[in-house]
Design brief:
- The protein is α/β, with parallel strands linked by helices.
- The protein has a domain of about 80 residues.
- It has 4 helices and 3 strands.
- It has a 3-stranded parallel β-sheet with strand order 1-2-3.
- Strand 1, helix 2 and strand 2 form a beta-alpha-beta unit.
- The longest helix has 13 residues.
Length: about 130
Amino acid sequence: MMRKWPRSLKKLLARLSRLEYDGVIVYDIQDESSRIEQPRPFPFMETRDPREYSYLLSRLSGRETITYKSVAQRDRGSFEAWLQETHEKFSQQHLVLVGAPSSEGQIHLSLNEAYEVLRESHLPLT
């Protein structure tokens, strides 16, 4: 199901083991070039699925995770499937949905629509 654990995850867990903490927040990194006019100092690169990282962190640390997810790139049907998979495959319960970085560009699903889909799903996601 999951790729091997990245070295960064092992480093993070080692650092966290020296702290008292309740949980971890995992962000969904998105291309925000539509938000600013100046070129970024480095190009945007796709990253690991935040649900996968959240799943691994939760499983290995025994702590809760909160997963942030940008929703603008998906249409309603694909977001519904994403929610189902989030629950079934990644055992995630705590989500924060994030809209597009700006009103420019293609927005397939608004933040309000995404929260409506989440409510209608009746999945145990908060």
